[in-house]
Amino acid sequence: MLVDIVVIVLYAAGMLTLGWIGMRRSDSQEDYLVAGRNLGPSLYMGTMAATVLGGAATIGGVRLGYVHGISGVWLCASLGIGIVLLNLFLAEPLMKLRIFTVTQVLERRYNPITRQLSAVIMFAYALMIGVVSTLGIGTILQVFLGLPLWSAILLSGGIVVIYSTIGGMWALTLTDMVQFMIATVGMFFLLLPMSLNQAGGWDQLMAVLPQSAFSFTAIGTDTIITYILIYTFGVLIGQDIWQRVFTARSPKIARYAGSASGLYCILYGLAAAVIGMSARVLLPDLDDVNNAYAAVIQTSLPEGVRSIVIAAAMAAMMSTASAGLLAASSTFTEDLLPRFRGGQPSGLRINRIGTMFTGALVLVVALVVDDVLSALALAYNMLVGGMLIPLIGAIFWRAATPAGATASMSLGFITAAIFMFRDGIDANTPIYYSLAIGLASFVIVSLLTQRPAVVQSSA
């Protein structure tokens, strides 16, 4: 246990040091928000992959593997597919806009009202992304250090808030790269082979687990479709992901390095699913399947190696937590706050204060949420249900109008909230009905309010 504690403390100190280095490199608002738009292929790939592979992908991916077998890959696969599509088809036009937030696209295409409304939705989404991984880190420390959950959340989340606040995107990029390497070693080269070996190898998995555990569709076609609708499309429009796209030095770097990061996400999901399957063989009677990841680490890894894998888990979650935090902060300072400051733009000092304020809010919400997968589904249901249709329409449909966009965002968001309340956060109905209502209202209201004599330009 002492070795585990020492490794975790050294890791936390390293993250804070990188945050300080990031602060030294952040001399302007552009440095703070998008790393000066100057990342090369290695840094870009690392930070893009690290952004999406957080608590839900790691803890949730192993849990899905434990329950459903190899088909648990679909959570990470949906994220990876979205990353590939984004970097292949949308990265170049987005980079040409020279913007900081997703909602600025809506203002250029529609009007300031749509930007403000979408900023509220985007802020809620990004905040929950930060909450999901902060909760995940706290859960890991609770199990391995024996801390109360509330203190583990405040301790681990506080580290993320500190380095994100002082260093901005440069701090996130540097920490993401280290975290990406640690997570890769911990997941692929330590936990995967060791847990599989402890379980008796692949042949033993096939002998013990039901045949359905080896089917890629065992999780259910409805669930697979829902994951693609929520996570693949969510990645295409999420502020935390777009903000990483803006950091690339060139469209070519985004296209190739970004696509590589998407493929890495799919492989990460496969590894998580197999680890979950191994955990089911080793620990068939877990009281809480949410603890499958932590339990298999304790069971299959020796002291010393275990601490590296714990650090890898923290690495994955800290990357996503900081990405969600800075995305929420950027939306707050660039889209919402100027409205209350007479339109006066934010500067570097305001950006740092906004990140500190948003970080405190993330910690408060994390203290009252208890399920990482449900929290992630909540975030993406709000985002995709409210913003996918008007944002895609802004880019591809010339006849779209501000009134249509406003109606789609409002009704899509409300519909998602109603069905999450009625059927549960993890149900398929929230995303199905919110997209249907959002699309219908977008098309109908846009056609009713379109002025034939006016030619509107697309974003």
Can you give me a brief rundown of this structure?
By secondary structure, the chain is mainly α. It has 18 helices and no strands. It has helices at residues 2-25, 29-34, 41-52, 55-68, 74-97, 103-109, 112-145, 149-198, 201-208, 221-237, 239-245, 251-282, 292-300, 305-336, 348-366, 372-396, 402-423, 429-449.
Number of helices: 18
CATH structural class: Mainly Alpha
Task: Determine the CATH superfamily.
Answer: Sodium/glucose cotransporter
Rg: 21 Å
Give the averaged pLDDT, no decimals.
Answer: 89
Describe this structure in words.
With 459 residues, the protein is mainly α. It has one domain: Up-down Bundle (Sodium/glucose cotransporter), CATH 1.20.1730.10. The protein is 79% helix and 0% strand. The chain has 18 helices and no strands. The protein has helices at 2-25, 29-34, 41-52, 55-68, 74-97, 103-109, 112-145, 149-198, 201-208, 221-237, 239-245, 251-282, 292-300, 305-336, 348-366, 372-396, 402-423, 429-449. Helix 3 crosses helix 12 (251-282), helix 3 packs across helix 14 and helix 10 (221-237) crosses helix 16 (372-396). The protein is globular and about 70 Å long. The model is unreliable at 453-459 (pLDDT under 50).
